[in-house]
Write the structure tokens for this entry.
Amino acid sequence: MTDTKDDNDNNHSTIQTVPVALGDRSYEILVGTGLLDVIGEHITPFLKQPRVFIVTEKTVFQHQGNRLKTALENANITAHWFTLEAGEATKSFDQYHSLACDLLGAGIERSDIILAFGGGVIGDLAGFAASSLLRGINFIQIPTTLLSQVDSSVGGKTGINTPFGKNLIGAFYQPKRVIIDTTTLNTLPLRELQAGYAEVVKYGLIDDPDFFTWLEENCDAVMAEKQGHNSSQLRIEAITHCCRAKARIVAADEREKGQRALLNLGHTFGHALEAECGYDGTILHGEAVAIGMIQALETSVRLGAANMKNRDRVIKHFKKIGMKTSAAEVDKPLNADALLQHMFKDKKVEAGEIGFILGDIGAASMQRGVNLDIIRSVLHDSIHAPR
Ligand code: NAD
Ligand code: GLY
């Protein structure tokens, strides 16, 4: 975890390169500081002509747009901007249709490049537009939230939401490159940073107990709210480590036939919470995943598959970061049966049976046939936990 160096001469850190090995769809993830300001260097190899089509949203544009605009001007690259509303509602069929028409109306060609500049909402929507317009246009991910830098920008899952559930229309479509400038996180609200941190911890809990221990020791530096150009080495290390983990899993199981499902640790529980809250902002995706990971650990403890002390370590760690750890902290009346019903809509349901990702720290695996009375009691106790 210590292979990142500073280059103090230009205030930019050494760029970390993480390969995603997928045959002729292989690509690189670049991680560093200041990459946005010299974006021309990192995208030019993919341009057939000096122009890009940028899909972003208003909040990202407000905080980071000028950096990208200036960098493209400096590189003499013409930019066509498509700036949508911020928020999950943008990942809709209507927004997809309107974006598709706007891109086609602007004369996008199959050999052009779409830049997805934003968090997971923009990455998923722009990626899906790229996958489907003209039967496939190349795209590059420039993620600007912690969640999107460690998870959604890598691995090629793209899509939009439907009234029947999240991400139910989509495609596996890999980007040509992922460019992670960790300084974009300097303007991210703390609550969003905390939500993204859940996905960072997830990699430790899946199969990397040493990483979880490292996070216990270094979380203050990783999470410090505002980080200057040269003060975010531990954050870069953490993000790079997560990208390596995700790249390894995606390379082994791109289409989620097995191992990739482990990335859903905490998500079966978490998605149920999000669905019950109606995606109205009461709970963010990462917050729901954090609570879901605690519920998965509690289920594992009750099944004799995890140690109580380890469950308590994770709860203590999340509390230290200021994250929610139980459903009791969600500002909505909840009940266990309603949450359980949502779980039956999960993509891991097979022949009517829910697949749960369970296990101790660093030892997650998919379990089927779990006694639903145990799940119901875990949910009930989480809803009624002391706050
Ligand atoms: P998001 O894109 O909505 O961003 C969260 C908030 O941060 C928004 O309000 C946004 O405007 C703001 N923001 C983004 N970057 C900012 C910056 N640099 N400075 C200030 N504000 C900024 O949400 P997210 O958490 O990044 O992503 C959640 C989405 O990702 C969900 O739709 C989820 O389904 C999806 N997701 C996809 C995958 C995948 O593999 N494709 C994985 C996990 C999650
Ligand atoms: N975020 C889960 C996955 O990419 O598979």
Summary: Confidence is low (pLDDT under 50) at residues 2-10. Residues 233-252 form the longest helix (20 residues). DSSP finds 13 helices and 13 strands in the chain.
